[in-house]
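Bifunctional lysine-specific demethylase and histidyl-hydroxylase structure dump, as promised
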Amino acid sequence: MAALLDGDAALAALDADAAFAALARLLRRPDFLDGVFESGRCASEPGAAAAFDVAAVLDLLDASASVAGCEAGAPEGGPPRRGVDYELGRWAPPAWERYAGAVAAGGAAAAARAALAGGYSVTIRHAELRSRRLAAACFAVQDFLGLPAQANVYVTPPGASAARPHVDRHCVFAVQLAGAKRWCLREADGYVPPPARERATARADAAYGGERAVDLAAGGALYVPRGAPHCCENAGDALSVHVSFGVDVHAPLTWEGALQAALRGAGAAAGAHAALRGLALGDAPFLRHACLHRRAGAADRLRREAARALGVVEALDGAAVEARATDAGLAYLGLAPRAPGAARADALAGLRAVVDAPAADRAAALRDVADMARDVRDRARALAAALLPD
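structure tokens r here:
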């Protein structure tokens, strides 16, 4: 297995908190990065219960401000807003039901406690911007994988579910903090491209044929790949609290993104970039797999992915590549409009240049990906530092 550079150092914050020890063990499994991550399969790791104050979790709603607008780096402030910072509701088949109670003078935490007493669940979004403890764990996952992450906390009464069966466009790392939860999952045998958008109900794709249930007790950790249908409910007789670290795999942080950087470094024509974008969305879905740029051997992997993409282009005629090419994203890459009709020739020339380039050139492309991931990380940490009290 190719090691992650400084992997143990990245997980130090998880090692230091007993509540997240199982998550650290899951991420360190010898087969996780090569055999489980984005493979279509889930994985779980049992753990031991650690001290976690459920009441303090709800108090986060009154102790923190709204983080609306945080994605743009400028939170609007003010008290937490329902539907933005938190939600109160439950899955009551065949529909999701929103808690009808109002947020009274007692604040959001009081409303959350009233909702729980009525059998509704509480969802606290962007919990990494409300708790230093959760921020440390969230940023450890982010540093380990080199991919953006955020934390949502779910508090659920016995026998209830916070959400309807669904799929996510992000990978989920769930840690059970208190109580117990049963997850019903559908798995695939091999990598399945993530959905173009999140869907309200579980997909019936033939690729997700395997179904299983995973029971998480306090301290346990679970990985659910993006696109895998799932649902969960409180399987115990006390409140369940779990945190989900959602790991986003945006296009610039996939193998397509790394190849776009390599094509740019090789001076490839705009048609090569347009063709690669279109192929990633269709004939070459492997390009949408996360690029773990921090792994030893990543430059060699980039060459292999370029060769695979080259093989796809070679198997298509000019009209087919032209039909798949898309101008979406060219402006983002700082490229001028492409010459029509040249997508296949441009892609062949550009991908061959990447395959034949020195390893140092491919390493430079990976540094572009790493710089982008680092920028996202630094902005998230600066925001947390500004929002969290000393």
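The longest helix spans residues 359-387.
lmk if u need the other ones
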